[in-house]
C-alpha cells in the first residue's frame, strides 16, 4: 500500500509539473500531453495483453516483465525532462512567459485564489470530465456482465473472446483506444467555443445513469431491472463515453489557459493539472459508492 501511495504521489507531482510547463505553450502542445497520457493507457493495455498471452499461467514472470518495462518507461521520461529543459522551443516559450510576468517565478496562495475566482468555469470543466470518467472506469464498467448473468460464468461464456481477456478487451482496450481517437480529434477541430463547452461536458453525466441501466452487477446481484440487455450496445456506450472523454479532456485542457494573459498562463496550466488530478481522485473515491443505487 505504501508503494502505491508513493508511486501515485510521484506521478501526481510529475503530471502537474508537465502541465504547468506546457501551460504557457500554444494549445496544440497541451493536447499533445493529454494525447500522450491516453496513448500511454493504450500501450499499457496492449502490453498487458501481450504478457498474459506470452506468459500464460506464470504470474510471477508476467508481473516481473510488466513492471520492468514500466521502469524502463519511467527512466525514459526522466531523461526526456532533462532534454526538454535544453530544447530551443521550450527556452523560447519560457522566455516569453518570464518577460510577461516580469521574471516572477513564485506565486502566492492569493494569486491562486484570485485566478480561480476569474477562471473557475474552465477549471470546473476539467474536473467534470475526469470525475465522470473515473467514476465509471474501470470499476463500474468491469462489473457489467453479459445478459442473462449465467452467460458470464466461465463454463457458459459465449462472447467471441477468451473469458480471461473479456474485461481487458471489452473495457480497457475499448476505453483506451477510443480515448486516443477522441484526443486526436481535438487536433483537427474544437467544438463548441469556450463559452459553450460546459454544455457537452456536463451532458456526459448522463452516462452514469445509462450504465446503471445495463447489467451492472456489483457484488453479484442488483435489485434493478436490466433495461439495456445487449452487450454490443454496452460496447458502443463505452466507446462513446471514451471518445467524449478523450475529446473533451483535450478541449478542456486546451481552453483553460487560452485567452488569458501570458503572465497567468502557467498558473492556469498548473491549476488545470490540479483539477485534473482532483477529478480523478474524486471520481475514484465516489466509485466506491457506485453499487449502492442498484442494491437498494
From TrEMBL:
Organism from which the protein derives: Panagrolaimus superbus
Coiled-coil regions, chain positions: none
InterPro entries listed in its UniProt record: Eqnu_transpt, MFS_trans_sf
Annotated protein name in UniProt: Nucleoside transporter
Molecular function GO labels: nucleoside transmembrane transporter activity
Segments crossing the lipid bilayer: 29-52, 64-84, 119-143, 163-182, 194-212, 232-255, 267-290
Membrane topology: Multi-pass membrane protein
Source species, domain of life: Eukaryota
Entry's family note: Belongs to the SLC29A/ENT transporter (TC 2.A.57) family.
Alphabetical keyword list: Membrane, Transmembrane, Transmembrane helix, Transport
Entry GO terms, CC: plasma membrane
Compartments, as annotated in UniProt: Membrane
A Pfam family: Nucleoside_tran
Amino acid at each position: 500500500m505504501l508503494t502505491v501511495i508513493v508511486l501515485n504521489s510521484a506521478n501526481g507531482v510529475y503530471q502537474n509539473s508537465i502541465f504547468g510547463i506546457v501551460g504557457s505553450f500554444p494549445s496544440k502542445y497541451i493536447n499533445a500531453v493529454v494525447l500522450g497520457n491516453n496513448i500511454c493507457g493504450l500501450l499499457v493495455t496492449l502490453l498487458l495483453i501481450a504478457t498474459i498471452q506470452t506468459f500464460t499461467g506464470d504470474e510471477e514472470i508476467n508481473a516481473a516483465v510488466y513492471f520492468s518495462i514500466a521502469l524502463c518507461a519511467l527512466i525514459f521520461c526522466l531523461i526526456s525532462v532533462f532534454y526538454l529543459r535544453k530544447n530551443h522551443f521550450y527556452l523560447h516559450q519560457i522566455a516569453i512567459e518570464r518577460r510577461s510576468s516580469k521574471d516572477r517565478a513564485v506565486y502566492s496562495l492569493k494569486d491562486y485564489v484570485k485566478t480561480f475566482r476569474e477562471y473557475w468555469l474552465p477549471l470546473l470543466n476539467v474536473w467534470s470530465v475526469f470525475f465522470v470518467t473515473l467514476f465509471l472506469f474501470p470499476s463500474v464498467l468491469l462489473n457489467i456482465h453479459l445478459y442473462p448473468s449465467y452467460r458470464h460464468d466461465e463454463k457458459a461464456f459465449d462472447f467471441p473472446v477468451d473469458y480471461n481477456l473479456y474485461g481487458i478487451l471489452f473495457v480497457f482496450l475499448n476505453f483506451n483506444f477510443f480515448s486516443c481517437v477522441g484526443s486526436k480529434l481535438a487536433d483537427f477541430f474544437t467544438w463548441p467555443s469556450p463559452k459553450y463547452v460546459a454544455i457537452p461536458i456536463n451532458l456526459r453525466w448522463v452516462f452514469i445513469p445509462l450504465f446503471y441501466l445495463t447489467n451492472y452487477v456489483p457484488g453479484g446481484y442488483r435489485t434493478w431491472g436490466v433495461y439495456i440487455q445487449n452487450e454490443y450496445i454496452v460496447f458502443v456506450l463505452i466507446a462513446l463515453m471514451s471518445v467524449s472523454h478523450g475529446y473533451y479532456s483535450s478541449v478542456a485542457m486546451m481552453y483553460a489557459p487560452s485567452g488569458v494573459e501570458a503572465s497567468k498562463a502557467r498558473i492556469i496550466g498548473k491549476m488545470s493539472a490540479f483539477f485534473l488530478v482532483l477529478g480523478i481522485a474524486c471520481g475514484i473515491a465516489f466509485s466506491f459508492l457506485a453499487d449502492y443505487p442498484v442494491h437498494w
